[in-house]
Amino acid sequence: MVDEVLSQSEIDALLSALSTGEMDAEELKQEEEDKKIRVYDFKRALRFSKDQVRSIGRIHENYARLLTTFFSGQLRTYVNISVASVDQIPYEEFIRSVPRTTILNVFRMDPLDGTLIMEINPNIAYTMLDRLLGGQGNTESIMNELTEIETVIMTQLFEKTSPILKEAWASLIDVDPILDDFENNPQFLQMVSPNETVIVVSFNTTIGDVSGMINICIPHMVLEPIIPKLSVHYQMQTSTIKGDLEAVKKISKNLQQSSIEMKAILGETRININQFLHLMKDDFITLDKTVNDPLLLLLNDVPKFNVQLGKVGNHVSVQVLEEIKGGVVHDE
């Protein structure tokens, strides 16, 4: 709140009203006290800070991109998934917000306690099923009870998303998500107490011409052990360290696959142009090394080893005698 600065005329008018009884000082004081009181709803206890909620949102933005790629390949059609909102609400409110008939995937998040729910809007779920069964996937229709075959098909589809969830959470903790249950009636799911705080990440989802929502419900008990890791500082520090390690690994891998030129110098000599122009068959060129002298082995034209000429099978070879470092010879 920005403090308001009164002009001199306003101050005089206020003092005049107080002195004449038009305004009561006690009433003004009470009004100021009333402004400081805020209503707090204990059913909507906020157990996560804004920074922590934003961190969860960033993690699931990456998850949305991964899911977009996955479902595009599985359904062979245009898919777009993006984070719409991240809220903390009571579990009871989440259950009331989902349709009576929907798709609910319950993931166990070992080694964390508790489970995570992925709720798929009926329009989106029906479109996915229609595409998997060879249809166009553009019919918006109310989903009835799934048959056993349809349930198996949908279960297998969402089981394949477990590695994606693992990858998205990797910046926080190494989890092993497992699809533990598959339901289409939210009333059968009572994971936590109704007043338990949960984080609900909502995704805008488009498959072909059909749009709908996918919701991820994460109970507080799942996130409680890793709440300190949700701070912005930890996220930046972790991402920096991981980025540095990945860069080192990538550079090392590229270096190991790099090609270098290696050549052994039998010897050298100097002749003039006239001698070079008059070289004939069977002429001899005298080098600066004898047959018993070690040869110089160059790596990309840099002297690296003194070697001895030899033969392995039908191949000419060299045996390393000593290493050359900075012009100094080191015996092997």
Automatic annotation (TrEMBL):
SUPFAM superfamilies: CheC-like (SSF103039), Surface presentation of antigens (SPOA) (SSF101801). Keywords: Bacterial flagellum, Cell membrane, Cell projection, Chemotaxis, Cilium, Flagellar rotation, Flagellum, Membrane. GO terms for biological process: bacterial-type flagellum-dependent swarming motility; positive chemotaxis. It is a peripheral membrane protein. It holds the Pfam family FliMN_C. Belongs to the FliM family. This is Flagellar motor switch protein FliM.
